[in-house]
Amino acid sequence: MTGALNRHQQIALLLDSRGWVVMPAYRADHPSGGKRPIGEDWQNRPRIARDKIADVWRGNNPANISILTGTPSGIFVV
After folding, report:
1. Which run of H or of E encompasses 22?
2. What stretch of H or E contains 25?
3. Which of 28, 31, 48, 77 places its Cα 20 to 30 Å from the Cα of 39?
């Protein structure tokens, strides 16, 4: 990855540095309404390697960022 990071890349890397598991999520303009992780079986996917995070959120119109809560990230939503 060369050049400056976009805002999504910066945020995804920040969240990862906190130990939280980040995954790409649909954007609000998607038929699902957004906020849903992209793909099937997302609960069981391996953590995205830190050196690959910038690649996942590259471009001018990147996916949203979701955080896998619960045991993988050590945070819980009530």
Report:
1. strand 21-25
2. strand 21-25
3. 77
